[in-house]
Design a protein that fits this description.
The protein has ten helices and ten strands. It is of the alpha/beta class and 239 residues long. It has two domains: 112 residues, Rossmann fold (3-Layer(aba) Sandwich); 117 residues, Rossmann fold. Helix 6 links the parallel strand 6 and strand 7. Helix 1 packs parallel to helix 10, helix 3 runs parallel beside helix 4 and helix 8 packs parallel to helix 9. It starts with 11 loop residues before the first strand and ends with a helix.
Length: 239
Amino acid sequence: MSDGSSRARRPRVIVTRAAERAAGLSALLRESGFEVVEVPVTATRDASDGGVAFVSAMRRLSEYDWLVVTSPEGAQRVVDTAESLGLDARSVKRAAVGTSTAATLGGADLVPDVQTGSSLGAVFPDGRGRVLLAVAESAGHAFEESARAKGWSVDRVHSYRTVAVVPEGVDTRLVGDCDAITFTAASSVEAWVAVFGSVVPPLVVAMGPQTADALRRVGIDSFVVAAEQTLAGIVRALA
């Protein structure tokens, strides 16, 4: 006769998303039979100017032909700010890097197959008009360089910044007790290494190519990239 103590424990997965953004992924993992250990190594904050430039640009949204966002957090800030200003973000064409970002935005007219700014720049049309690019302070410049080369005038504004945080009461012994770890952004990879070094569980899952590149840069070469760059895609990669 067996009892509860003899049951195989559920696979234990570390979620490194910022605390304010971890709930969705954690819920999906639990529903799929995983035990979740949240170790937030980043947090999102307003841009360094307090968000002044971003809000000012959003007030002039009607002057733009395209609105471009590159992360779910950036998309959420667009949605929240538009709502607070009484604006309809659907009044302009919208482009998003990734299906999760597009879903957060409430839909997009253009989403590249690969979740990178350079991929969005490659499929972005030629044109003569204005583009509002709302991104994190740490975001790269590949999209805007490509868009400008295609004739567009691009206004880059910072909608937020990502800062590293040191999780309380967590040390490397925890890592040894876990089976997998998920990274959804390059900033999380960098913040993790700053705290824990290159110590990771046996299975590492990256949400997209930019996150995978960050893992390589810090010397973590064994990982899986989710086939679909969404939270559900991460769960499927683990399963």
